[in-house]
Automatic annotation (TrEMBL):
One of its GO terms (molecular function) is DNA-binding transcription factor activity. Residues 40-59 bind DNA. InterPro entries: Homeodomain-like_sf, HTH-type_TetR-like_transc_reg, HTH_TetR, Tet_transcr_reg_TetR-rel_C_sf, TetR_C. This is Transcriptional regulator, TetR family. SUPFAM superfamilies: Homeodomain-like (SSF46689), Tetracyclin repressor-like, C-terminal domain (SSF48498). Pfam families: TetR_C_11, TetR_N. Keywords: DNA-binding, Transcription, Transcription regulation. Residues 17-77 form the HTH tetR-type domain.
Length: 226
């Protein structure tokens, strides 16, 4: 049975349902462009095409708005990454490479990458946001990546290592690439662009295989005699 005109949502209703996402999109753009502290709530409302009062109906403060932006753009992706981990049956090295590539594709290559730059540059002045970001992003991401590394150890695919240190070694280049994207990488006249997916793949390869040839003796390759 086809839906009658009366049963279809009105344009106004559809607009109302889309409003939270429009506010989040406007907030993300402005927070990245101007910084969190410098962005005024009325600017977010204006860019979304609503009044400041309407903004506060959905998000009662600028801090709550930023938290919602983080949940929408990063926390959700981490949750989906956890689903990938749970459903993967192959070798752990492949899982790790896939997970890191997906992290860059879903966050690093998108507007969400600006959130990381924003947090690093401003969070010291907003301790409540710092704690929220730690709980919502940092700790879940570390648990996810650390769980993959531990999986490899438990299955005998990786040698025993300090898991937390490996997680930091994997994630630090990601942060660098996102900062570069929103700093030197954003300068159109600088020939300093990085091929981020290749850098991510190389980082995973280095963590898995290192630089020293597998046939080299312990301690690294011997120096040639003069």
């Amino acid at each position: 049975m086809s839906r009658t005109a009366d049963s279809l949502p009105s344009t106004r209703q559809r607009r109302k349902e889309a409003r939270p996402q429009e506010l989040l999109d406007a907030a993300l753009d402005l927070f990245v462009e101007k910084g969190f502290a410098a962005t005024r709530s009325e600017e977010v409302a204006a860019r979304a095409g609503v009044s400041k009062g309407t903004l506060y109906l959905y998000y009662p403060s600028k801090e709550e708005l930023l938290k919602a932006v983080i949940r929408e753009n990063i926390s959700q992706e981490i949750a989906e990454g956890e689903d990938i981990v749970r459903g993967f049956d192959g070798p752990t090295a492949e899982l790790l490479a896939h997970l890191m590539a997906e992290w860059w594709r879903r966050i690093g290559e998108t507007r969400a990458s600006g959130i990381c730059k924003l947090i690093i540059s401003e969070v010291r002045n907003f301790p409540d946001i710092a704690q929220f970001y730690l709980d919502e992003v940092v700790l879940p991401a570390e648990r996810m990546i650390g769980g993959v590394v531990q999986r490899g150890i438990d299955r005998g695919e990786f040698r025993p290592v300090a898991v937390d240190d490996v997680v930091h070694a994997l994630m630090a280049p990601m942060l660098f690439l996102m900062l570069h994207k929103h700093s030197m990488g954003a300068c159109p006249n600088l020939d300093r662009r990085l091929d981020a997916p290749r850098v991510v793949a190389m980082q995973v390869d280095l963590v898995l295989n290192g630089l020293v040839p597998r046939t080299a003796p312990r301690g690294g390759p011997r120096k040639a005699k003069a």
